[in-house]
């Protein structure tokens, strides 16, 4: 007998670990649930911008990935997703020690899934919101 | 006597070198002109996604930075820009050996600058287009 | 003695009534609260697209306006807002009899306000989500 | 013998004429070419916002439609497109007497087409730029 949530968790983790970029920025999969994935990343000296805050690309990386994996939780085994498009609005400086992105599915579909993500600082301040479209592809 | 284009180039390079993220992903400032900045980055084993292509965050990083620096070229000395929002549409797999982002200013303003960027592979294939808003801030 | 919520409601209604486009599409201000505005519009024969559903421009019109007015509720008297940018993801056919847009403020600021809106059909189905930036201007 | 460009023009015009919204705002198909469509609309008293400029929904309507029809020119007969998502950056007040939107295809695909549009005033000033995704559907 398999635990469906354990299976889901393992499936997302396997894909996550193949993303070298996630390792480069120190990102970690925090939580996997049906339609919702949370990813955390430290604000490292190696991922800052010119003012010393986390680079928008770090915020984007975990926002986009959390949203993509959220979409993937609602797709059958053997699928992957790619980002068709995503938009980020940056709300506050991305200061450390870490950022947490919470990706959610707004609408899951066979051709397209519409997703959002919120990225917050350790103190709870919202740093960015994202809204995008994921496309399912055969893995 | 100063060469205005040399001054501009130096100003953008100084800011660019402060972005640790650019160093982490191996990005390099390729060209600085009034209203147009080009940035190149290799597709490194450390910046890929689960299928082995460059991660969307790499494409985003150089697209966003090229657009931001393009905006900065039209602002007075002593200013920096931050991204208010930016949207990326991904068009083709981001394969190497390298990607080049060309950022351009569509409208420069005191409060907001509207910018675009195109990211292309070495073979010229367009990988992504971005459209966003930069906000000038005192450096 | 003035009722602050009545004052707010009157201020938003006055601006709304100046928007001829809202009248043209039959839109109506449904609810005004701090940081949240709801607008309703019928799906008229005059506002459809080629398949007989409401045109994306109708969905956009009430989504954008609800988000803009939500931003305005948090600004001082004597101000207006203009849309700097907004993105819409369309999720389902916009069938009638009517659509309701709920605009909300994610972050209110002196220079920029970040907003969202959800547009739903009478049966509750989400038709579109929007995410954008409003700029305060002197009225 | 058929003129392929006349066939294309007729096909786009037939779909355009079914969009009641285009008639409501007074929009007119100006030019149809492979991968590029231009639409014009007057700034009518019935389509303004609270400051007397064209409402963002008017600018959006012709921007979105020009981009969608541009995508349609590259698809086989018997297809229509729907907007999956589109983002608009507004650059300048949309004053009359008229606005012209020029939609172009950046990448045409069987599942998704990526498109842009530029909307300009009669004096040539750019009013808005749009970037979005169209989905082909069977008509």
Which terms would index this structure?
41% strand, alpha+beta, Thiol Ester Dehydrase, Chain A, 3 helices, 27% helix, 139 residues, homotetramer
Number of domains of chain A: 1
Q: What pattern of helices and strands is seen along the backbone of chain A?
A: HHEEHEEEE
Query: If classified by CATH, what would the architecture of chain A be?
Result: Roll
Q: Which CATH top level class of chain A fits?
A: Alpha Beta
Number of helices of chain A: 3
Helical content of chain A stands at 25-40%
Strand order of the largest sheet of chain A: 1-2-4-5-6-3
Main sheet overview of chain A: 6 strands, antiparallel
- Name of the CATH superfamily of chain A: Hotdog Thioesterase
Question: What gyration radius of chain A follows from the Cα positions, in whole Å?
Answer: 14 Å
Strand segment count of chain A:
6
Largest interface: A-B, 34 and 34 residues
- Output mean pLDDT of chain A: 95
For this structure, the CATH topology of chain A is Thiol Ester Dehydrase, Chain A
Distance between the termini of chain A: 25 Å
Strand content of chain A: 35-45%
Q: Which of globular, elongated, flat, extended, rod-shaped describes the shape of chain A? A: globular
The structural class of chain A is: alpha+beta
Oligomer: homotetramer
